[in-house]
Amino acid sequence: MAKPVKITITGPSEGRTDAPSVDDLLNQIRDVVDVLRGVEKAVESDGANTLVWRVTNVTMNSPISVELTPYGSGPADAVAARIDLVEKTAVRGFRALRNGDMRPPYWPDEIVARARKLHSRVLNGLSDTVIAFDADPEGDWIVIDRPAAREFERSVERAKAVVSIPYTELGSVEGFVTKPELDGNDRAILRFRARLDGAEVKAFASGPAFRQIEQLTLSEVWHGVRVRVYGAIHYKSLGTIETINATSIELLDSQTLPGIDDIVDPNFTGRLTSDEFLRELRADD
Fold it and tell me: pTM of whole model > 0.70?
């Protein structure tokens, strides 16, 4: 079993008790889980949530601590690797936020917004929140206290004050198809969810890219096939894509795995029973 993530929440230091309110306690735990789930979707190539976070221990001493343990299905090594990647990415993201980086890798905007709520409650009802990740290679904890929360808010305000300068660059963006369509001018559009931050991107296709969109099957669209879109990427601000003028689209992982009918050869034994086939093999040795 994976080791738990421990969340310790301290209520207001003023008054007769340091117990947090029910809303602050539950919302703080929920937002930590939403951060972890959002990071998992962004960091994994399948863009899915397969980990389930369960409450495995609660300590009612002051301050209150809750332990959340991740569970997953499938090979144990693969589940452990997924948990390790998610937790380490979450740790690096929290540290980046504390250092003023409002766009940590694999932290989409909605997850940064969740982290902001975690910090804002420390300024409005809580004294601090400590998140202990066992996967942290340095062995220390993420501490959201009043100084950290104030610095986070200052970083948010500085980010808002930065003048957004649109720009364009040639390159490619990888993501998962959500919808192909035609606009009012009969231009082919491919909408896809960017793998890095989960944001929806709109790509206008022409030439070879137009024909590549036409070749997409309904099954590929339904299953959110992974693509890499090449062309002129138009940014409305630093790191925020507005549109792409696509010149080429590459399908990734579009081939399905072989089924049992593709692998099994009914004539492999020459219509002999398994016992007869094995006896013949042994007789030839």
Answer: no
